[in-house]
Amino acid sequence: MVDGSSGNGGAKEGITRRRFTLGVLLASLAGAFASLVAMLKLLVPEKKGGGYVATIQPGDVLVYAEGNSAGSAVEASSMKVGDAVLVYPTGKSSNPANLIQLIKLDEKAFKPPTDISLTDKGFAAYSAICTHLGCTVSWAANKESPDASVTECHCHGSIFNPAEGAKVMGGPAPIPLSQIGVKVGPDGTLAFTSDFNGPIGPQV
Ligand code: FES
Closest Cα partner for 107 from 97, 99, 92, 117? Predict the structure, then answer.
């Protein structure tokens, strides 16, 4: 005589085992999918702008972004032709999109497409966020010819000409660094006078 209850139990066991195997398979697929998405995020560059949204307002005073004087107002008299410093608008250093390179050249050195109305007494200011993938730019001072100093990005070798609207002289950066207006105040410190004249952050 056939034991029906034992046969039914075997069938149930088989179904349970198949469900378990299916569950393990689905969990593995979900894990593999999550890993693939994470990997693609690393490979695909950030979207245009890379989420950089500056919060600089006209009237904000420029303060040093680094060094012993970090947080102190920049004195116009402390910079000579061919100098550059990284600055923030005062009280807004927690936003990396606000990082600016302030440069000083001879007033006559600026050529189009520099917006001369955004400069003052040889001072000009550009976004310090490289338009390639968003590294912070640095300054390559030319001691023999200070007005020929350039802005560089060491990440992938982009070079920008600050005397000509920070136009791209070489490397993978797709567009110039955007300019922002500055003015020297009666007390000798500098303040911003405008918004950026173009996009900031990675543009690839
Ligand atoms: S991030 Fe500046 S050159 Fe690539």
Answer: 117
Whether the predicted model's global pTM rises above the 0.70 cut? yes
d(CA 134, ligand 1 centre) in Å: 6
Q: What is the pLDDT of residues 146-174, one digit of tens each?
A: 999 999 999 999 999 999 999 999 999 99
Nearest CA to ligand 1 atom 3: 156
Decide if 119 contacts 109 (C-beta within 8 A). Answer: no
Nearest CA to ligand 1 atom 1: 133
Q: How far is residue 95's CA from residue 21's CA, in Å, rounded to a whole number?
A: 49
Cα separation, 113 vs 29, in Å, equals 54
CA 174 to the chain's CA centroid: 14
Name the nearest CA neighbour of 118 among 199, 202, 190: 190
pLDDT tens string 2-19: 444 445 555 566 656 666
CA of 161 to the centre of ligand 1 (A): 15
Q: Which amino acid is at 113?
A: P
Mutation pick for ligand 1 pocket among 158, 159, 168 (CB with most ligand atoms within 8 Å) = 158
